[in-house]
Amino acid sequence: MPRISLALLLVLPFPATAQIAPQTTPSRAFVIRAAHLIDGKSDVVQNDVAVIVQGERIVAVGRQADVSSRVPSGAQTIDLGGATLLPGLIDNHTHVLLQGDITAADYDEQLLKESIPYRAIRATAAVRTGLMNGFTTIRDLETEGAMYADVDLKTAIARGVIPGPRMFVATRAMAPTGTYPLLGYSWELKMPEGVQIVDGPEDIRKAVREEAKYGADWIKFYADRRYYLGSDGRLRSWVNFTDEELKMLVGEAHRLGKKVAAHAIGWDGIDAALRAGVNTIEHGHGLTDDLLDRMVAQRVYWCPTIFVGIYVAPGRGGIWPKMVDLQRIAFGKAIKKGALISYGTDVGGYAWTENQAQEFAYMVRYGMSPMAAIKSATSVAAQLLDQGDNFGTIEAGKLADIVAVKGDPIADISELTRVSFVMKGGTIYKQ
After folding, report:
1. What is the pLDDT of residues 80-111, one digit of tens each?
2. How many helices (H) and strands (E) does the chain have?
3. 386: which of 165, 217, 228, 248 lies 20 to 30 Å off by Cα?
4. Predicted TM-score (pTM) of this structure
5. What is the spatial distance between Cα 100 and Cα 104, in angstroms, rounded to a whole number?
6. 217 with 253: CB under 8 angstroms?
7. What is the DSSP string of 8-32?
């Protein structure tokens, strides 16, 4: 199947508004003033601050009076008044090529009736929406049947063809035969696959190499399916791969310098993923004390994706409403145990018209402090990506990924759904 060409993306409709078209080039210098600053690193909110940006990076941060001598000649001053500055937000679980799949019919409709080029066009709107909502970096965890179109989107954003967050991509997630949609159709029909189908260690080795060849930053697989409550009260699941297969998948990915993300919802799937040595657990509704202890010991990150479960549960029915409650309990335990929790929303699993910053409110409601929730989407999320030296905090030397809200997100975390200023890599996209 052909890859999406940049020529297609070049002709997309592009609204010429101040909020979307970049207002500057990275060669310029800025002084951004605001009443407050949350730097993503400290627990202390700084006041009366200025951030000096030259080119794509931050050169100084501090009280306005203290850094005034470092302002470059000709720098443009942006006075945001009583606003609060924060590092650009990071969402470590997105699907830009998916537009919501509450039901199997929603999912099948996209794979059966929308071409990959059309889905890529829709994805350009999704990445623009994410950037306007303050997310300057995303980890996109598979294309759901759109092959390697996420690599093309990443390239188009990096080259300035379209506006969007900095992207880390997983291309095609892996699952074995008969475990992932599209399912239930006549055996006489050859249906599209939502994933890369792999069976056996050697098939998996080749698939990991192929995804790395075509531009995958991460490797993702589906650890389990068919979730149910066991007699022991745990959320159980059917494991998709044998230990031998997962050992090959994780080992080959790590050998090639790629980290591994595991979709793992039930206890059994999480257990299998941890035995294999994955780097992140996605969703994790069935996490228990023993699994959380193993995650902490192995320094495995968790992307809970809380809001998507709440969003799809009424439409999916069955055990899904119960899974929402189990995840709430697991989240509280994870906080107490000091688990590495990174912000991840699974947006695309719900429509991109929903602001992905809604996840923050649920994290706080489930027991996380507002400051910790902000760090989960800034410094902690950057560490998951091994990018802590480049972004995730507002400090000298880091990329100038800066957002602002008019209110106080510590007092009201929902302020993060109302981002009023967005700068990515020294370029202003929203002011």
Report:
1. 999 999 999 999 999 999 999 999 999 999 99
2. 14, 20
3. 248
4. 0.93
5. 10
6. no
7. HHHTS-----TTTS--S-TTSEEEE
